[in-house]
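Propose amino acids for all 152 sites.
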């Protein structure tokens, strides 16, 4: 586009291109403050994000140091447990362990009722002996005749 078109002036070669370049440059310069402000804001956000990342890294480092201390403190006792845990593992691998629930169920079904009956019988016997003991002289032991001594 020739800015002097319509004014009756002869066309100058390259002038319209120069005007277009200057116009584009002027528009770019007009947008430069906003672009710089946007860039400045982005840099501030980057600085804030970097600060947060630095604090997070420091916190993670402190946590890692604490965990390392705990691991060092617990490592020896846990290693000392290994032989016992191996023995427990061998015991639990024994096929007899698989029969335990059935055995316990059988004990519960068969033996516990018997024990309950014995407990009731013991309670009844204790009740009878308490009643008999309340009668004076009934349960007194008589000694053997030779133990009684001379009767005169």
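Proposal:
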């Amino acid at each position: 586009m020739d800015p002097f078109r319509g004014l009756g002036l002869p066309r100058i070669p390259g002038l319209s291109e120069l005007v277009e370049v200057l116009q584009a440059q002027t528009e770019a310069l007009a947008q430069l403050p906003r672009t710089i402000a946007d860039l400045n804001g982005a840099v501030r956000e980057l600085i804030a994000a970097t600060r947060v990342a630095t604090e997070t890294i420091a916190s993670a480092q402190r946590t890692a140091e604490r965990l390392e201390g705990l691991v060092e403190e617990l490592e020896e006792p846990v290693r000392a447990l290994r032989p016992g845990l191996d023995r427990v593992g061998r015991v639990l691998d024994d096929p007899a362990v698989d029969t335990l629930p059935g055995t316990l169920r059988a004990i519960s079904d068969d033996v516990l009722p018997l024990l309950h009956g014995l407990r009731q019988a013991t309670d009844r016997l204790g009740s009878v002996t308490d009643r008999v003991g309340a009668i004076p002289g009934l349960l007194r032991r008589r000694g053997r005749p030779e133990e009684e001594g001379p009767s005169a």
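The radius of gyration is 52 Å. DSSP finds two helices and no strands in the chain.
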